[in-house]
Amino acid sequence: MSRLLALAAETPARGHRPWPRGEVDAAGWTAAGEALAAGSFELLGLWGERDAVHMALREPQADVIAVLTLACPHGEHPSIGRMHPPAIRLERAAQDLHGLRAVGLPDRRPWLDHGRWRRDSVGEAEEASSEAAAGYPFLPVEGESLHQIPVGPVHAGIIEPGHFRFTAQGETVVRLEQRLGYVHKGVEALMVGADAARMVALAGRISGDATVAHALAAARAVEAASAAEVPARGHWLRALMAEIERVANHLGDIGAICNDAAFALMQAHCSALREQALRAAHSAFGHRMMRDCVVVGGVAAEPASGGLDAVRALVALVRARFPALVELYDETASLQDRTVGTGVVGEALVRQFAAGGFVGRASGRGFDARRDSPYPPYDALGVEVPIRAEGDVDARVWIRIREVEASLALLDRLIDELPGGPSRVAVPARGGEGMALVESFRGDVLAWVRLGAGGRVERCHLRDPSWFQWPLLEAAIEGNIVADFPLCNKSFNCSYSGHDL
Amino acid sequence: MRKILLESLLRRPLTEPPPALDDAELAQLGSALERATRRGLGRSLAIREVDAGSCNGCELEIHALGNPYYDLERYGIRFVASPRHADVLLVTGPVTCNMREALLRTYHATPDPKWVVAVGDCGVDAGVFAGSRAVVGGVGDVIPVDLRIPGCPPTPLALLRGLLALLARTAEGG
Ligand code: SF4
């Protein structure tokens, strides 16, 4: 029997779907932390509430996923981060949002809380904040001829806000320290007490570029909690949206990465294709980004007449134009000179952080929720997952290129084999607990929800893939020149809003 | 690369004709711009985009303004890196408590005359995030706003219409 299942089975919680959840004591909690540190478990998420802390784990060898819960009647729990560094930021966030103290946490600085939240409404962690207001101590750096470059939160460009503190020796970055949390909107607090429909609408606004994936993860968690079955056509239409979203974002990223390597031609062509993807989405689903198109129980509406033809035309267009762009990327020496060998992340690190998406796959970790924790319709379709070993900017571009091609093939099948019947089912408002793992263009999104008796949200947590990718960017830039940071950063394209919540 | 360049030369441009201006938007601008000086901006607008808490959806559509279909620069509208070079602040998102100060500082760093455009449902009134204790409110709750472009996110066409209306008025000399 798997160690993870054994831990979860100690005191199993009832009605947690589809994976088990179990209550553990401090010893069980610590044992899980040790298994994480030893590399036998992977961390999928860690989140708190007023008097408990939860951790979603995966045991790859046994192909098992489970949630462990530790009650924290005194607001304290043994720190996982002290054994397994990927948990540090998660524990700092739980400390800010719920006042939970992770005992032994090596870094207790506030993370999302900048000491500026409004105090006029009742919050869960009023007192945590005074500490945050006192100014943020960056990690000290000592050494000869080092200088620091503070960047942000407002960046020069149309990008999200965050602060980067570079320590450089000459042109070379010795250390990058990120400070995030600027766009924290209190989304999870807004979800408490909401009905499932509003919860999913909010989830669709956690990271705008992955609105379909986040809404889908949230909706699937609600459906799991309510033991509802979405009709096949609903699943297929959702996947159709998710693949359009993937293609659109990857096209945008490929162009933007090349643009940051001073090759604007690629950006012009890729952004034109991306525009076509958004227009096809609009024709089929009535919104360029398919916002609010995934709802609890299925999809908001049937595709408009002619909409599926627009998607077919998009597939044909990208198929016709993309190969020449790929060739251009491959054969432009000045571009390759910038991307090859830049911003390398090693396999050990992506495994330790269980980083998903192109960040993980470019460094040898192949996890893709569509294949490795499959949900309909991907369980029937099968998904090819490209993988590279180099871990550099170039590899992250290539993963995106291969995924665009794979998504085009999926789109063909999703349209050709689209089942008939209803695309939505009414989901009864009842209590329960559910979790979902959904593959966004950026990596796996985790959603967890506990619904009260009337179907109202008691606690919902969404973990964007960026949580486990941001820290790796700090590692990727080390030893590179400062001028290559925009390029590295774009190749990661982590979500600020998805992370800050 | 030569093949692609040659093809691009021969193909018709993708760029679309400019959209017609919306009367309501023009009217909205009228009063705001009366406050402005008579100095014309020479049919050129420099925009500094500020994400004050957005979900990044609005940023994607603002980005799209630069693609070959909308090609914002042909109107003399361009995005600049520093608020000191900007005529217009294009502000997205509900203003989060953590971004309030950065927004204010950016506003004060922008020389007069300046205009502020609040973008998206969130920029207008915090949208779905209204009421959160981590959110101050819409852009107008922090700095004076001259034009609002609603939508979640507003389409590039809606953004373009708003900006062109702004440009038309500034070119008239306010
Ligand atoms: S208006 Fe919509 S797209 Fe824009 S920031 Fe708000 S939620 Fe995101």
List keywords for this structure.
heterodimer, A: 501 residues, alpha+beta, Beta Polymerase, domain 2, Cytochrome-c3 Hydrogenase, chain B, 2 domains, five-stranded mixed β-sheet, 19 helices, 42% helix, globular, B: 174 residues, alpha/beta, five-stranded parallel β-sheet, two-stranded antiparallel sheet, 6 helices, 7 strands, 16% strand, binds iron/sulfur cluster
Reconstruct the topology from this structure.
The complex is a heterodimer of chains A (501) and B (174).
Chain A: H1 3-8, E1 11-12, E2 16-17, E3 21-24, H2 26-37, E4 42-49, E5 52-59, E6 64-71, E7 76-78, H3 88-98, E8 101-103, H4 129-133, E9 147-151, E10 163-169, E11 172-179, H5 187-191, H6 196-203, H7 211-225, H8 232-260, H9 264-285, E12 294-295, E13 298-299, H10 307-331, H11 333-339, H12 347-353, H13 357-361, H14 369-372, H15 378-381, H16 393-416, E14 432-440, E15 443-451, E16 457-463, H17 470-477, H18 485-492, H19 496-500
Parallel strand pairs in A: 2-14, 3-6, 7-8
Antiparallel strand pairs in A: 1-3, 4-5, 5-6, 9-10, 10-11, 12-13, 14-15, 15-16
Chain B: H1 2-10, H2 23-34, E1 45-51, H3 57-64, E2 77-79, E3 88-92, E4 95-96, H4 100-109, E5 115-119, H5 120-125, E6 135-137, E7 147-149, H6 156-171
Parallel strand pairs in B: 1-2, 1-3, 3-5, 5-7
Antiparallel strand pairs in B: 4-6
Helix pairs in contact in B: 2-6
Bound molecules: iron/sulfur cluster.
